[in-house]
Amino acid sequence: MASHRVRAIAISLAVALAPMGAGQVWAQNTPAPTAVSLQATIQAAAQQAAAQPGFARLSAQAKLAAIQAAVSAALAASGASPTVIAAALVQAVSNGTVSAGVAIQVAAAVAPEMAQQVASAPAVQQQLAATGQSATVTAATTDGGAPSVLVSLQGVSSTAAGGDAGTTAGGGTTTTTPAPFDPCAGVVAAYCGG
Fold first, then answer.
1. How far apart are alpha carbons 79 and 131 in whole angstroms?
2. CA separation, residue 193 to residues 51, 62, 71, 106, 185 (Å)
3. What are the two backbone dihedrals, phi and then psi, of residue 81, each rounded to the nearest 5 degrees?
4. Can you say how many angstroms the Cα of residue 99 is from the centroid of all Cα atoms in its chain?
5. Bridge partners, 159 (sequence order)
């Protein structure tokens, strides 16, 4: 009779502890995210944002905010390190998955210490130059020591001359007006219509 009780207790313990042990084994076997594995995450998040009703009618800034929010949330949930996130964003720009501006904004939100690295990556700079856009990243730290990043994105500038500056000695003034940043410039992804 005692052996039946011992056996019942042992089985009960085995049943109770089995899910915990399986969870530990599963957690140990989950590979860490890589820049390559995050490409599908970035693409799915951007496509999900673009699939929202009315996305096509949004302004360029609203599209940027929607795509940035979706990609930022997906990358933050991935558990990837800031270095891996930065590499994934640069690779996504190289692949044409997201624009350089989106990558910089996402880096500033998810991995602020890596925003400058993303902004100065050759692929990002090349896309910004090819589309006539520019980005300025200003980094600082908060009172608590946390990184804080301000990103300024601008599109192609239009120049207007006041008066006839080329022919008069006094000439008019030349003004440069930055165009709004376009989050789909240089992107071949379907969600941007390319």
1. 32
2. 12, 16, 18, 21, 11
3. -75, 160
4. 9
5. 176
Question: Tokens in use for 123?
Answer: 């692929």
Tokens representing residue 48 in the block: 């999900």
Tell me the per-residue pLDDT of 143-152, one tens digit each, with 9 for 90 and over: 766 555 656 6
Determine the angle formed by the axes of helices 38-50 and 82-95, rounding to 10 degrees: 60
Any idea which residue has 């905010």 for tokens? Answer: 65
pLDDT per residue over 15-45, tens digit each? 555 555 545 555 556 788 999 999 999 999 9
Dihedral sign, CA of 125, 129, 133, 134? positive
Angle between helix axes 100-110 and 122-130 (nearest 10 degrees) is 140
CA-angle at 157, arms to 163 and 94, nearest 5° = 165
Q: Flag whether pLDDT at 126 surpasses 80.
A: yes
Kindly state the greatest CA–CA separation across the chain.
113
Count of all residues that appear for the chain in the document: 194
In order of 20, 79, 81, 104, the CA distances from 26 in angstroms are 10, 16, 20, 34
